[in-house]
Specification:
Enolase-like, domain 1; alpha+beta; 151 residues; disordered C terminus
Length: 151
């Protein structure tokens, strides 16, 4: 069993209204989607980046993943990381590697017939349910409020 194909696409989606984070404002968001196929299974990963990120996947990284063992995402990551040495790892290359890496882990979980959370060693909360980002944020918010922080 080997990876048969890697596909990368970018989608620019307009926001409902202008958005900003205090350092920049924008009116659209670009998502780069990586799809990796083995037989009928497709692993999906994405990153928020420029469309050039999809070109890095297609032109530089895909050939390193096609034909590789889909059950060894870490080995693929090492090859990809080494391949971007001369183009620069930070920024677009890191985003491209990230999208493929997530797609490979998603694919591995599907091939093994387990959830991605289980594959990655999900821990459970006190009631036996997985912890969520929302629960973590709520706990941090409550803690901050007790120390006098306010919105």
């Amino acid at each position: 069993m080997v990876v048969q194909s890697v596909r990368a696409r970018s989608f620019t989606v307009p926001t409902d209204a202008p958005e900003e984070d205090g350092t920049l404002s924008w009116q659209s968001t670009t998502l780069v989607l990586a799809e990796i196929r083995v037989g009928k299974e497709v692993g999906i990963g994405f990153t928020y980046s420029a469309p050039a990120c999809a070109a890095v996947i297609a032109d530089l990284l895909a050939e390193l993943v096609v034909g590789s063992d889909p059950l060894s995402p870490a080995a693929a990551w090492q090859r990809m990381r080494a391949a971007v040495r001369n183009v620069g790892y930070p920024g677009i290359a890191a985003g491209a590697i990230s999208a493929i890496d997530v797609a490979l882990w998603d694919l591995k979980a599907k091939l093994l017939g387990v959830s991605l959370a289980t594959l990655l060693g999900r821990s459970t909360g006190a009631e036996g349910s997985p912890p969520t980002a929302t629960a973590s944020c709520n706990a941090s918010w409550r803690s901050g409020c007790r120390r006098g922080f306010h919105a």
